[in-house]
Amino acid sequence: MDAAPPTGTQLLAVLAALASPHRLRIVAALAEGRSYVSELARRLQMNRPLLYMHLQRLEAAGLVVGTLETAPDGSSVKWFEVVPFALSLTPATVAAAVPTLEAGGSGKDEK
Which residues form the HTH arsR-type domain (predicted)? Predict the structure, then answer.
């Protein structure tokens, strides 16, 4: 996240993305350096479809970024890395974000 205060929608997306132990483990692993999906799946002992689902949530929240690169053998490899972020969660941050919530006041991923 950047230095500007998050909107209500951004705040909900980040909090929802970080509300999973799997996604916290992914962020922690990527904090050590970028990784490609197969290697990350092995390190986290997670199947690739499940890992991709979690990576998509983190990417949608702006916490990780994925780039597709061509390996020397011509195959495509998707690399992910954490985006540096800092979130200061205070009552004032929440109060400032609430008026910016989209109509209905819920995040797109709220269930």
Answer: 13-103
Average pLDDT score over residue span 9-34: 95
Task: Grade residue 109 by pLDDT with cuts at 50, 70 and 90.
Answer: very low
- Token output for 79: 């690399």
pTM of the model: 0.81
Which tokens belong to 102? 């989209």
Amino acid at 2: D
Please give the CATH topology (third level) of the domain spanning 8-91: Arc Repressor Mutant, subunit A (1.10.10)
Burial bucket for residue 54 (CB in 10 Å: 0-12, 13-18, 19+): buried
Q: What does the alpha-carbon distance between residue 65 and residue 109 come to, in Å, rounded to a whole number?
A: 19
pLDDT tens digit sequence for 68-84: 999 889 999 899 999 99
Matching residue, tokens 């002992």: 45
Q: Reduced to 3 states, what is the DSSP secondary structure of residue 79?
A: strand
CA distance 95 to 78: 38
